[in-house]
Design a protein that fits this description.
alpha/beta, five-stranded mixed sheet, single chain, 693 residues, 9 strands, 25 helices, two-stranded parallel ribbon, 4 domains, 7% strand
Length: 693
């Protein structure tokens, strides 16, 4: 509205000025022209810059302005009236200017508000744009989630449909089991258990039961009696015909056939196998045994009689056992098993080393016919496939240490004593007095010792009366590894009680007890027992536990053997750390602390001699270790391990004790089955060994 009024007012002013100028020109022609000129030279006309007035009249003006214009248009106009008129016009102009200034400020404020509104509008537009974009992203995300949910729903539906199918199969299986249970319930109600199907063949469950009983060392004469007794007294049932002894003897061939079939399936589908072999003599007959180790389990190939233990006959015995497997599983199975063998594990007998060479040569002959594309392989690849990794039993290291003790202590005693203590009737020229004391004490005082001259029962009772809950001595019979070192520490622990027993309780000794008493009277013998007992606690005992730990691989023994060798070289110069009880070879397998440990490492009058003996033995052990485990020491064959060697040796155990267990099983069979033929014994051996593995 203000913008509309302002142009109208200016138009009226311009019109008025135009009329005044016209009046001036008329008055200039009269007598008051000088005054009129002065009037028009007043500051208003001098200072104001008024544009030329257009002759066109405004289209519309306010009533007040039109009245003022009419009054000014009167024909009679004097100077006083003009001055008044001008004065009023000046005042009006001032008012108009003031109003224009106010309107200008208001207009400026409106422009500022408009700019602010425009900026706010721009912000709102940007925010709206962002909101729209965000909404679009949300819509896209929701669409994506919806698509994923649809896909998940489809997958879930497929899984549910598959689960329904599996459940339907399980329902069918349960129904079949229900029918079988109903049939068996009918048999139970009739109090008679059927053992044959179609009145010809025995049921598989009956055959399996008989085989398991025979593998548990139940004789063929007693299998039928055992089954009938169990069913009558436990289940309250009678049973029909059961296999007779003659039928059971025939089942032994089935047992062997099943074992051979299992071997064929397992050993032909597994690469990088480890072959074990060993020999022993029992009851005047020499036997050879072969076993195979996989990464997670072990199997026995079998035992066979051998005329001698030569390497040639050992290889022929292996070929014969593989031929038995081929007779059951098919031709070529034996060669496939040999092709999968990559490692060997045995003791360090010279025959075993020669056998490893013969076996490697034989594998090189059969590999071209077994390995597909042999001729296309490079010479290096053929050599890698045909070569064998030969490892040796770590447990036999303790046996080597025991043998080293015999020779080393015998030399030490000859050099130490100016006159060797008098030998009793049980003394051996090739045995040092220290080991002689340990052997005779165990024979006299331990369980399974001498039945004629031993006093195990009386001595054990005496130990309990004096606060020792059990007899710590172990017999040499049936114990081979570490027995000398263990019994030495046990004997040193109970030595004071042994002397008191002979002096105060058993005063009528025989030759065996006299020998023990005489050897106990020699201080150097007791010092030797303490030294060997310390070796058991610090070296051989922890080493045994390391070898039995299944989480430690054969290649992990490299660092442990090297660590042991460095300690042996150090202690060969000064064994005082060992005598004081501050020596630990394997940090993760510290010595076992018990009463014997406390006794061995307590200060005693024998410590100077003990330190001397240990120094000598540690030097000998260092040479022995370098010779026996040189492959695992720096610059040895297996020291620089690589990824392929680690993969090839996953199936290699650290010991060959599986062969020892098989010989133990075979040795117990003839005692309980003295009349069984050799074929049956071999079948029992194989099945028992498969179950034990």
């Amino acid at each position: 509205m203000v913008d509309d009024v302002l142009p109208l007012t200016l138009t009226a002013i311009k019109s008025l000025v135009f009329r005044l100028n016209k009046k001036r020109s008329e008055l200039s022609r009269h007598k008051h022209s000088d005054q009129i000129v002065l009037l028009f030279q007043e500051p208003f006309f001098a200072q104001q810059s008024i544009p030329a007035v257009e002759h066109a009249q405004p289209s519309s003006v306010s009533a007040e302005v039109q009245q003022k214009v009419v009054v000014s248009a009167k024909p009679k106009l004097c100077v006083r009236n003009v001055n008044k008129k001008l004065k009023r016009k000046d005042e009006k102009i001032k008012e108009f200017k003031s109003e224009v200034s106010a309107l200008s400020k208001e207009n400026h404020g409106l422009h500022s508000c408009l700019a602010t509104a425009q900026r706010a509008s721009e912000k709102n537009r940007v925010a709206l744009s962002r909101l729209n974009k965000k909404q679009e992203n949300v819509i896209i995300e929701k669409d994506s989630q919806l698509l994923k949910l649809e896909n998940c729903f489809d997958v879930r539906m497929e899984l549910l449909e598959k689960r329904i199918e599996d459940l339907m199969c399980e329902v069918e299986i349960v129904r079949n089991e229900r029918d079988q249970l109903a049939e068996r319930l009918t048999e139970f109600e009739s109090q008679t258990l059927k053992t044959k199907k179609h009145k010809q063949l025995y049921l598989d469950s009956v055959r399996q039961c008989c085989m398991e009983l025979m593998s548990l060392n139940v004789s063929t004469q007693n299998v039928e009696k055992v089954i009938r007794s169990l069913l009558q007294h436990i289940a309250g049932m009678n049973v029909e015909n059961l296999p007779k002894p003659s039928t059971l003897i025939g089942m032994t061939s089935e047992m062997k056939g099943l074992a051979c079939q299992q071997l064929a399936e397992q050993l032909t589908r597994t690469k990088d196998l480890t072959l074990h072999n060993d020999g022993t003599s029992k009851f005047g007959q020499h036997y050879g045994g072969f076993q195979v180790s996989l990464p997670e389990s072990s199997y026995s190939l079998g035992l066979c009689e051998m005329l001698t233990g030569s390497a040639d006959l050992t290889l022929k015995s292996l070929q014969m056992i593989l031929a038995d497997i081929e007779a059951v599983a098919g031709d070529g199975i034996g060669d496939k098993i040999l092709a999968n063998i990559k490692n060997t594990m045995s003791d360090r007998h010279i025959v075993e080393k020669k056998f490893n060479g013969l076996l490697e040569d034989y594998r090189q002959e059969i590999l071209p016919s077994v390995v597909a594309g042999w001729d296309a392989l490079s010479e290096e690849e053929q050599l890698n496939l045909s070569s064998l990794n030969n490892f040796f039993c770590g447990m036999h290291l303790t046996v080597g240490m025991a043998d080293c003790v015999l020779s080393t202590l015998l030399e030490w005693e000859n050099a130490y004593f100016d006159e060797v203590p008098s030998r009793h009737v049980l003394a051996r020229k090739t045995e040092p007095g220290i080991v002689q004391l340990i052997r005779t004490a165990c024979k006299a005082l331990s369980r399974h010792g001498c039945e004629k001259s031993g006093v195990y029962q009386h001595f054990t009772a005496y130990l309990k009366q004096n606060g020792v809950p059990h007899n710590p001595l172990a017999t040499f019979r049936g114990n081979r590894f570490n027995i000398v070192f263990y019994d030495a520490g046990a004997l040193f622990f109970i030595a004071p009680l042994v002397n008191d027993f002979f002096k105060n309780v058993w005063q009528t000794p025989n030759q065996l007890l006299k020998a023990v008493s005489a050897d106990l009277a020699v201080p150097e013998h007791l010092a030797g027992c303490k030294a060997l007992g310390i070796i058991n606690k610090v070296i051989t005992g922890p080493l045994w536990r390391v070898l039995e730990d299944k989480d430690i691989s054969i290649l992990d023994m490299n660092g442990r053997f090297q660590n042991l060798l460095s300690y042996l070289d150090k202690w060969a110069m000064d064994a005082s750390t060992v005598v004081s009880g501050n020596a630990i070879v394997f940090e993760d397998f510290p010595p076992t602390v018990d009463a014997i440990y406390e006794c061995l490492f307590a200060p005693s009058e024998y410590d100077n001699i003990v330190e001397e003996i240990l120094t000598v033995l540690f030097g000998a052990f260092s040479s022995l270790l370098t010779r026996l485990v040189g492959e695992h020491l720096p610059d040895g064959k297996y020291d620089a391990t690589n990824v392929s060697l680690v993969a090839e040796t996953k199936s290699v155990p650290k010991t060959n004790t599986i062969s020892e267990r098989d010989f133990c099983t075979a040795g117990s069979l003839p005692q309980g089955k003295t009349k069984c033929i050799h074929f049956i014994t071999r079948s029992f051996d194989l099945v028992l060994q498969q179950q034990n593995c």
